[in-house]
Amino acid sequence: MELLKSDFYYDLPEELIAQTPVEPRNSSRMMCVNRQTGAVEHDHFYNLCSHLKKGDLLVMNDSRVIPARLYGEKIENGTFIEFLLLEQKGDKLWEIIFRPAKKAKVGVKFSFGNGRLIAEVVEAKEDGNRIVKFECEGNFFTALENIGQMPLPPYITEKLENKERYQTVYSRELGSAAAPTAGLHFTPETIDELHAKGIKTAFVTLHVGLGTFRPVKEDNVLNHKMHSEHYFLPQETADLINETKANGGRVIAVGTTACRTLESVATFYNEISAHEGYTDIFIYPSYKFKCIDGLITNFHLPESTLIMLVSAFMGYENTMNAYKTAVDKKYRFFSFGDCMCIL
């Protein structure tokens, strides 16, 4: 089987890339798509409840974005440098992307926030990334919150005034380098409304890596190597999913990250049960879904692994038609953009 990257291309005018979030969060537009027929309906996210039924379960990713971009200086000579934290490897031990990379030899030390954080390079990896050990007085994440910047995606060029707008209202587990953006549309009121209607919510954690923005370089999609991300599916969520299925309800993933977590566990273990680990699952057309019945997701980049996942879920023709409609109707795209509800 050959699946070409170019099959997933669509033409997107630059002005449709959302640079800032809408206020309030739940006022974003929502395209509702029937995955069987491809029929499209236009609505707003604040009406989400009317598209769901009592007994449905929404599964959300509660990962919280860390302000992973740090600007500082090389201690020995004051050279300006930038760190991008990728993944925690141990106590105050992080894998990072470093600019300019040639300045980061093992043993070299750097200072951030006037010495609030000190970092020493302890390992240089083959891919050019570095492992660094941080020193700080007090809590590392508190220091990071004070001096770090949000690592916004490369297509967002405007400064984010309020850091919390790149967090979901239910985020709690620190560890992502990018937001699980489908959740950005939810407000506490939306969640209360869902619960009042008998629609349950549950959480998984998948720490989103910057690999989520890495372009597919292979012409044949099947040759693309997926990045690996850490996930956790708690027992409470596994029980709710199994109970929902047994009662004939639908399991709806909020975002591709929640989807990848659930489908990873179902694929690796042939059941939904509590698990923690790493996944590099790559979902593209021909994949048979084993857990989810619905998906809430934003509009994704052309030729990305995420539009391939959506195509696997609602069919290639339906997906490309929905994206063409979104462009024609001037929906807002990507992280701060509008969303789709696929059922």
Q: Which helices and strands appear, and what pairs or packs with what?
A:
Blueprint: E1 29-33, E2 40-44, E3 57-61, E4 63-65, E5 69-74, E6 80-90, E7 93-99, E8 109-112, E9 117-124, E10 130-136, H1 140-147, E11 173-176, H2 188-196, E12 200-206, E13 229-233, H3 235-246, E14 251-254, H4 256-269, E15 275-279, E16 294-298, H5 305-314, H6 316-328, E17 339-342
Parallel strand pairs: 1-17, 3-12, 3-14, 4-11, 14-16
Antiparallel strand pairs: 1-2, 5-6, 5-8, 6-7, 7-10, 8-9, 9-10, 12-13, 13-15, 16-17
Helix pairs in contact: 5-6
In a nutshell, what does this entry contain?
The protein is an alpha/beta fold and 343 residues long. The protein has six helices and 17 strands.
